[in-house]
Amino acid sequence: MTDALKWSVARRLFIVAALLGVAQLQSATLQQLSMGDLIAKSTAIVRGTVQGSYTAFSGPVIFTHYRVQVAEKWKGASGATVDVAVPGGVASGIRQAYSGAPQFQPGDQYVLFLWTGKSGMTQIMGFSQGAFAITQDGSSDPSLMRSASHEMMLDAATHRQVTDQPLTLRLSELRAQVASTLGAVR
User: Fold this and answer.
1) Residue 129: closest CA among 22, 41, 50
2) Are strands 29-31 and 152-154 parallel, antiparallel or unpaired?
3) Segment 38-81, tens digit of pLDDT
4) 85: burial class by Cβ within 10 Å (0-12, 13-18, 19+)?
5) Do residues 84 and 117 touch, judged by C-beta distance below 8 A?
6) 184: burial class by Cβ within 10 Å (0-12, 13-18, 19+)?
7) What radius of gyration do the chain's Cα atoms show?
8) What is the end-to-end Cα distance of the chain in Å, rounded?
9) b/e sequence 66-79, b meaning 16+ C-beta within 10 Å
10) What is the reported pTM?
11) What is the dihedral of CA 150, 115, 52, 165, to 10 degrees?
12) Using one digit for the tens of pLDDT, what is the confidence trace for 94-131?
């Protein structure tokens, strides 16, 4: 094998290894959060409508920031709108994607379980685990749906791998569960 061919093979192997490493960095192993965990660990819980979005770098990570018009606040201090940052997006011609990160469209309505860190950035608890889509069925008590995450999840108590399940419930049921849990915590 010639030196040029060895160099070409080595370079290709390095590129493949680097790409696999990046793919691994952008996949996630999540802790499965119970409804009680979502309620207790969230710094804010809101019902609102996505108004728009923009992308920006925070260090080396691109975040899509969604502006959510708050219709109801169930926990935490929240103004009329909240900026929710989700990892991934396109900025300066660079695309980053993160497995398990939800994507929203203007007009979509959600109940969001949020967490604000020391940096002041507000994110969704447990990636998609903390985002409940409100179905537009014309009902005064609409259904909420959270799709199952396809990410690897670990049970908090046993640290064993578990499979996430989709969850559907009524807005009034979730509102009552949040109120009950917060009442028990206080």
Assistant:
1) 41
2) parallel
3) 999 999 999 999 999 999 999 999 999 999 999 999 999 868 99
4) buried
5) no
6) exposed
7) 20
8) 72
9) bbbebeebbbeebe
10) 0.81
11) 20
12) 999 998 899 999 999 999 999 999 999 999 999 899 99
Q: 3-class secondary structure for the chain? A: CCHHHHHHHHHHHHHHHHHHHHHHHCCCEEECCCHHHHHHHCCEEEEEEEEEEEEEEECCEEEEEEEEEEEEEEECCCCCEEEEEEECEEECCEEECCCCCCCCCCCCEEEEEEEECCCCCEEECCHHHHEEEECCCCCCCCEEEECCCCCEEECCCCCCEECCCCEEEEHHHHHHHHHHHHHHHC
89 Cβ contact list (under 8 Å, min separation 6): 55, 62, 63, 64, 95, 96
Query: Residues 154, 159, 162, 167: is their CA dihedral positive or negative?
Result: negative
Q: Each residue of 128-139: pLDDT tens digit? A: 999 999 998 888
Assigned token pair, 97? 């994607």
